[in-house]
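Q: I'm writing up a methods section and want to include an example of the input and output format. Could you take the sequence below and give the corresponding predicted structure tokens, formatted cleanly so I can copy it straight into the document?
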Amino acid sequence: MHQHLAVLERLQRHGRVAGAAAPGDTLRLHRRDGVSGEFVSESVAVAPGERPPMREVRGG
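A: Here is the clean output for your methods example:
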């Protein structure tokens, strides 16, 4: 998501994309129900801030 937002911002800044809306923060998943075998739709909230900075990942 971070890369997508950075690319979108850069394209807007250079005038290559006009009026593009930022992607939403909801992810739609489809999982198979273990009992019935049918697909069940599930919404999961994701935010760009959930990923820690690389310096924290490398330091751990």
